[in-house]
Design a protein that fits this description.
heterodimer; A: 128 residues; mainly alpha; 80% helix; disordered N terminus; B: alpha+beta; 3-stranded antiparallel β-sheet; 49% helix; 13% strand
Chain lengths: 128, 371
């Protein structure tokens, strides 16, 4: 990997910590769905999918720290998707976002990761 | 399930004001440095020379410290004293981050001790987990993750590498589970069970309220008697909810009745039990239009409404689990809060009574063979 293709260290370090945080929260959500799978069979699939997604996010965070551009691209896509879904759900009258915790977890952290990823890329371009 | 405790609301205001103060302080420092003040130039240089990770970790610790100090007035026992120590410790360590090199390890210890102490308090029932407390733990966990990234490992042995890779996720998982256990073991008085929040009502029903509750039960029973046959309900516009092997009760909803308010002639849903002999009508469900909009309770504490919150609902069939304290759900499901509802059970509902949020377990077992 050429230095010009890698991304800024501090921004990507902070972004990777936030992604690990998100992955850990997803991991718990996935694990917590498994007991419900005893009575709700569909949650077996959703729980396993969530655990796989969390594992992928750990892997992406690791590779983001190593300056891999593909990890950067995947994370941007994932965060954008997550943010779009959150905005969409918050527009529905289902009480999906109520209080500071869901705002921090579902809006502030994804936005912060995107801002950091964008900053990391522009810094890398300047360095190149 | 996790609300904002009244005596914790000040913590949110403090967090907002502290952020404004920090921005103003940094701006002021730059302004004074621009005017040639020596102390401001020195401070500004120190700030600029600090890495972004250190700055963010210090800011998050100060934020947590500010929130802890703002919560002291609502906690006049030992917890209040610990909040003072904790808050001052965080703010002190936040400042030390800019002027010392040894601050990282004490800060990690302080963060871990604070998070673990919170878990002990919550599991022991000395503190109810609410959104301010959980948000504060989220801030502290991010600060902890940043501090762990600041480590400069000299020995790169495999056990150390594994520990470095797993310690932070493990701490996040332990924190989530600890808060969850505390919340489930010690639900507050308004939670009938996990996920059901009850309408606040008086403790004792007056004779008038008892009469009104009996009237509501009689009117509902008389009104829905015509729907004993599910086909009659369907013909009248009630749509059967999805059948689930896990849920022995089925709700038939009528969207045409959405605007009615506690009208026995126009209930929002009918409730049937899936018995071995087919569907049996066991009650009606009244529902308001919006979450948080409690309905009229003519029977006072006897006709207490409830709403379900903190549920991860999956549209792939009628399936659900509970969301984590950090408001996360499995992929493919989303957190929902239902509008308040009031069940009226027209069968004998055992010790739970005719307006309980849930069907009595013994009654349900007798009806459906499942609990």
């Amino acid at each position: 990997m050429h230095r010009a293709e890698s991304i800024d260290d501090s921004a990507s370090e902070i972004a990777s910590v936030l992604v690990v945080m998100q992955a850990s929260l997803s991991l718990v959500a996935g694990l917590s769905a498994l007991p419900f799978a005893i009575v709700e069979p569909g949650f077996r699939i959703l729980g396993i999918l969530t655990i796989l997604l969390a594992s992928a996010m750990f892997w992406l965070a690791r590779n983001l720290r190593r300056g891999r551009r593909w990890a950067w691209r995947w994370l941007v896509a994932l965060e954008l998707l997550s943010l779009a879904l959150t905005v969409l759900l918050s527009l529905l009258p289902i009480g999906a976002i109520r209080g500071p915790v869901p705002v921090l977890v579902n809006l502030v952290i994804p936005v912060a990761v995107l801002v950091l990823l964008a900053g990391a890329r522009s810094d890398a371009r300047r360095a190149a | 399930m996790y609300d904002i405790a009244t005596d914790h609301a000040g913590g949110l205001t403090a967090a907002f004001l502290l952020l404004l103060f920090v921005f103003a302080f940094v701006g002021g420092l730059r302004l004074m440095a621009g005017h040639g003040a020596v102390w401001a130039i020195r401070g500004s240089q120190t700030y600029r020379g600090t890495t972004s990770i250190t700055k963010l970790a210090a800011a998050l610790m100060m934020l947590s410290g500010g929130i802890h100090l703002a919560l002291v007035p609502g906690h006049d026992d030992i917890t209040g004293l610990l909040f003072v120590i904790d808050g001052l410790g965080f703010i002190g360590l936040g400042f030390l981050a800019f002027i010392t090199t040894w601050w990282r390890r004490p800060a990690i210890l302080w963060l871990v001790a604070t998070i673990l102490a919170y878990l002990v308090w919550v599991i022991a029932g000395w503190e109810t987990p609410d959104q301010v407390g959980i948000a504060c733990k989220l801030i502290e966990l991010v600060a902890l993750g940043l501090l762990m990234r600041l480590a400069n490992p000299t020995r790169r042995t495999w056990p150390r590498r594994v520990w470095r890779a797993t310690a932070f996720p493990l701490m996040v998982c332990v924190t989530t589970l600890g808060i969850w256990v505390g919340g489930l073991v010690h639900p507050d008085a308004l939670h009938a069970h996990a996920g059901a929040l009850l309408q606040p009502v008086a403790a004792v029903a007056t004779p008038e309220q008892q009469a009104a509750a009996a009237q509501l039960l009689a009117d509902t029973r008389a009104s829905i008697a015509r729907y004993q046959d599910p086909a009659a309900a369907i013909a009248a516009g009630f749509k059967p909810g999805p059948a689930s092997s896990a849920e022995p009760l089925r709700h038939f909803e009528n969207s045409a009745n959405a605007n009615a308010v506690l009208d026995p002639n126009r209930p929002q849903a009918l409730v049937y039990a899936q018995t071995t002999h087919g569907l049996q009508l066991i009650g009606a469900m009244y529902q308001m239009k919006r979450a948080g909009q409690w309905g009229p309770d003519p029977g006072g504490p006897l006709t207490q409404w409830h709403q379900h919150e903190g549920i991860c609902f999956s549209p792939f069939g009628f399936e659900f689990s509970f969301e984590t304290p950090f408001w996360t759900c499995p992929v493919g499901s989303t957190s929902i809060t239902t509008p308040p509802m009031l069940h009226v059970w027209i069968i004998d509902n055992g010790k739970n009574g005719p307006f309980a949020a849930d069907l009595d377990k013994t009654v349900q077992r007798q009806l459906t063979g499942r609990s």
